[in-house]
Amino acid sequence: MDRSYVAEPYKIKAVEPIKMTTREQRQEAIAAAGYNTFLLNSEDVYIDLLTDSGTSAMSDHQWAGLMVGDESYAGSRSFKHLEAAVRDLFGYRYVVPTHQGRGAENLLSQILIQHGDYVPGNMYFTTTRAHQERNGGIFRDVIVDEAHDASLDVPFKGNIDINKLDELAAEVGSDRIPYICLAVTVNLAGGQPVSMANMKAVYEWAQRHEILVILDATRCIENACFIKQKEPGFASESITQILREMCSYSDGCTMSGKKDGLVNIGGFLALNDDRLYQKAASLVVVYEGMPSYGGMAGRDMEAFARGLYESVDYSYISHRLEQVRYLGDRLDAANVPIVKPIGGHAVFLDAKRFYPHIRQDQFPAQTLAALLYVQSGVRSMERGIISAGRTPQGNHYYPKLELVRLTIPRRVYTYSHLDVTADAVIDLYSERESAQGLRFVYEAPVLRFFTSRFEPISQ
Predict the structure, then answer these.
(1) Is residue 370 part of a domain?
(2) Is residue 264 part of a domain?
């Protein structure tokens, strides 16, 4: 490994065995899974880069926290610890715990969206948009145009285009925009960060139009690290200081603790407005549990609180970004088409350029994910036309980005595992012309990428 990349800022105290299967075994497994990597059994996977959600390795301090979790049904001490951590690091007044991020999205959508409202955001995320639409909202993408060009290497491709906000407000009226959903970082753009200057500008615009700003803060620590490293004026600031300023340009956030929170389950909705908090606290009882546990066990809240403090340690988060950059740099050096600049939680393969001979409605990204598994036992996931779903009229959305996500779990794999992954992708790219697309065998009606099944077009 090139020593210019940061070494792991931890040592390993426990291990979980993994094993490589044969190519024939993997061919049988992917066929049985309907060529959907989500439907593979974990024991058939060698290196699992499906997601960074709930797949982190917890620290010894977090494991110790599991033993002192307060499992009281109401008034849990562990919730108080989580609440204090969120207030300390994020700066919001109120915290509503949920079982994971989509629980918070459900609460927020029900509280704020009325039928026919428009919700602008810097590129959609699958579950977020699903909750918005199921509650009568209409998503509108207001990300900068550069984000839709995978090959364009410019900083802060997650930024919102203020002109697009102006156009939306002029088209539908500010009163039909309940809030702006500002993701930090932007997953489907390739893990791209948002600059502090843009967050401030968006918040000032929203205040002038009396519109709320709600962060999707799922990977906010990664975004804060990018700001520290890339945005002028922040190099000497701590991650905590940057995070607090980021959140100050918003009225609340949803968060999945399964990413930057370094836990296997958990999330929260954080707010500053007392009226909105009261509505959320009433709804959480219906969908999640008491406002003092919200679908989490006390032990999980304890580990979550400790994980949040660990996540803002610069030695940890800078290594996190370095691991992702290492994999991306190896692929880029071999001329494999990837999303640039390299994002915070994953390297995204550009399936359109990888397989230019496969039409988008023949699912080049899904094809690439399936073939990568057969090639190497590495599990990845599609982030393209299948993830985008269908319009209300039943037609495919055709996103400009057709990607395969190689998502790196936190504190789980070493650089050697990333070398195995890089070698497999490079080998697959060398034989790319022989690949053929897929077609649906079963299409799930909602969030179809999770459970749909496919078959090769050649069959």
Answers:
(1) yes
(2) yes
Helical H segments across 180-313, by residue range: 196-208, 220-230, 239-248, 274-287, 298-311
In whole angstroms, what is the distance from residue 368 CA to residue 444 CA? 20
Told to judge if 259 belongs to the known catalytic residues of this protein, a careful annotator would answer yes
Q: Which domain holds residue 388?
A: 23-52+314-456
HSE-up of residue 281 (Cα within 13 Å, Cβ side):
11
How far apart, in whole angstroms, are the C-alpha atoms of residue 294 and residue 373?
36
Average the pLDDT over 211-232 and give the result: 98
Instruction: Please say if 139 is a catalytic residue.
Output: no
**Identified catalytic residue from 51, 126, 367, 407:** 126
Annotated catalytic residue 125: yes
Exactly one of 129, 157, 299, 383 is catalytic; which is it? 383
156 catalytic residue (yes or no)? no
In a domain, 17, yes or no: no
What band does 459 get if pLDDT is binned at 50, 70 and 90? low
For residue 3, name the pLDDT band (cuts at 50, 70, 90).
low
- Which residue, of 253, 279, 311, is where some domain finishes? 311
- 352 assigned to active site: no
| Number of domains the chain is built from | 2
**Considering 311, 339, 368, which residue would you say is the last residue of a domain?**
311
Q: Of the listed 125, 139, 226, 355, which one is catalytic?
A: 125
Least confident range from 1-15, 97-111, 197-211, 228-242: namely: 1-15
Q: Using CA atoms, how far apart are residues 195 and 242, in angstroms rounded to an integer?
A: 11
**Residue 275 annotated in active site:** no
Assigned domain for 1 exists: no
Active site residue 216: yes
Omega cis (within 30) before 51:
no
What are the respective helix, strand and coil percentages of the chain, to the nearest 5?
45, 15, 40
Task: Given the residues 73, 397, 398, 442, select the one marked as catalytic.
Answer: 73
| Residue-wise burial string across 112-136, b where 16 or more C-beta atoms lie within 10 A, e elsewhere | bbeeebbbbbbbbbbbbbbbbbebe
CA distance 67 to 55: 20
Q: Could you check whether the bond before residue 341 is cis, i.e. omega within 30 degrees of 0? A: yes
Q: Residues 172-201: what's their mean pLDDT?
A: 97
